[in-house]
Amino acid sequence: MPELPEVETTCRGIAPHIQGQTITQVQVRDARLRWPVPDNLSVILTGLTVESVTRRGKYLLLNTRAGTLLVHLGMSGSLRIVTSAQNSGKHDHIDLVFGDACVLRFNDPRRFGAMLWTDKPTEEHPLLKSLGPEPLLADFTGELLHHKSRQRKVPVKSFIMDSHIVVGVGNIYANEALFMAGILPTRRAGAIALSRYEKLAGCIRRVLQDAIGQGGTTLRNFVNEDGKPGYFKQQLRVYGRVGLPCVACGQTLVEVRLGNRTTVFCRNCQR
């Protein structure tokens, strides 16, 4: 599944091509996404200018004067900038056409993504209003994590992956941040001290920033906006390395399942 760094990479990649550009045509080839594409989406969008492209959690927001198009990549979706001369493929469900040449193409083989319209403030949208803070912004702190964790008995890995606590900390990045912070992923969230949460908050931010800088993590179904895979996978220290030596101490990395997710850690370095 595309995670926050992949979505942020996509946001930064498509923005220069479509910001300030007017949508001249919308082609919906298959409206059967996670939520049905609005029947009148073409009527709504045609003639509108994309004023900015932003991100909230894993949602891409194409902002216009009349409202906002919310795009979610789901499990396997991607957005690419192509030319109008490039033929669509089997899973290219939606095209936003800008002028004569530029097309923003939404591809989603598993159709778990979404493309929805709202003319209300985005912070009031049901899919966005309960989201936690952005981990790359100043209001995300160790103090906030510590405060929200009190009396919580869930494992800390599950806690930081809860989008109501903080958005965008997917499975890969939770594994990596906890290793960097030296925190055992199975440890009860409410039993972790403030000083350790302060370190963890910094590690979450660093891991995500590093991944964004590398273009996201290479997953089987993820490609960035020009069709090339991300490269952060080369930098992973624990995820996908069960049975291999810890990069810090050499002890064999182990794996457990938490919340039905793969969790890899070092019993020596993480406590």
Protein architecture, described:
There is one protein chain. The protein is α+β, with helices and mostly antiparallel strands and 271 residues long. It has 2 domains: 4-124, N-terminal domain of MutM-like DNA repair proteins; 142-265, Helicase, Ruva Protein, domain 3 (Orthogonal Bundle), CATH 1.10.8. It is 24% helix and 20% strand. The chain is built from 6 helices and 10 strands; from the N terminus they run αβαβββββββααααββ. The chain has helices at 4-18, 41-45, 142-149, 156-160, 171-181, 194-214, and strands at 23-28, 52-56, 59-63, 68-72, 78-83, 92-98, 102-107, 114-118, 254-258, 261-265. The strands form 3 sheets. A 4-stranded antiparallel β-sheet has the order 1-6-7-5. Strands 2-3-4-8 form a 4-stranded antiparallel β-sheet, with helices on one face. A two-stranded antiparallel ribbon has the order 9-10. Mean pLDDT is 92; it is low at 218-222.
CATH architecture heading of the largest domain: Orthogonal Bundle
Number of helices: 6
For the record, what CATH class of the largest domain applies? Mainly Alpha
Low-confidence stretches: 218-222
- SSE series: HEHEEEEEEEHHHHEE
Given the C-alpha coordinates, what overall shape results?
A: elongated
Structural class: alpha+beta
Helix fraction bin:
10-25%
- Strand runs, count: 10
How far the N terminus sits from the C terminus, by CA atoms, comes to: 29 Å
